Amino acid sequence: MKVAVIGGGAWGTALADLLARKGDQVTLWAREAEVVDGVNQRHVNDMFLPGASLAPALRAEGDLAAAIRGAETVVSVAPSHAVRPVMAEAARSLDRSQPLVVSASKGLDPDRLERPSCILAEVLPHGVPVAVLSGPSFAWEVFQQQPTAVVAAATDHSVAQRAQRVFSTAYFRVYSHTDVVGVELAGALKNVIALAAGILEGLGLGFNTRAALITRGLAEMTRLGVKLGAQPITFAGLAGMGDLILTATGALSRNRTLGVALGQGKTLEQALAGKPAVVEGVNTTRTAVALGERHGVELPIAREVANVLFKNKPPRQAISDLMERELKAETR
Question: What's the pTM value of the predicted model, to 2 decimals?
Fold first, then answer.
């Protein structure tokens, strides 16, 4: 199968490497010339996945039209804020046979408050099948071929199963799903809670606090998801609880790492300085708060994370304000 992976970050590179080792003919599109040269000449992506010796068959391309030409599967892995312009340009080069397009971006459009699959539905030709891929999956561990389980979702189950077959290997197990709304929202919103978890760690707080945050964060994610049409059970699965646990506790999490720096007293600008990779939770926090306000959903954790990120609120004060809110039943 000929596959185009659009986005040369850590996750896009890991997925491209997985598919190339599976035997597919894979082209990785990257905006950065140094990424293209590194993959083609030395089989490395030192900018976004340093230390990984990539499949020799994997090729990189800086020309988007050339990368997509003839592809049977196109994997969209651009950062959430770039999905619209990148995939609108890519749409002009799609083969008329309408390849499967799989969105693997974990975020929300910060301008229109939209999920990536909604953007793809707008910019791709009518009738192109779209699936989403999400779940607990650090790029580095996928590259290392550590056993990983994720979920592929599409409103048409046969499309989800098609994506499932594309990515499944002996170490990368893919489950199918039809709740696209839930899978995408869970994959985006967990980054907000991971930022909060990092802040707690940076403050030196312990396991009690982290357990409370993760549990109430999951409730918050579910509350917004259900309001937007998701199935609540989705948030108890791989895309929800699974990815939340990984991102809020794993040392490889960029969102958690950023939160740690904030908890230790750095400003957002200081914490992000010198980091080439996008930390999706920053934009998603702002978007989640806006969605909550639009739909009348209470998101106290997201709101306080936003206050720390964008209003320089002291993290300890944010925690105090969360703990001292009006008492209520757990299921409300």
Answer: 0.95
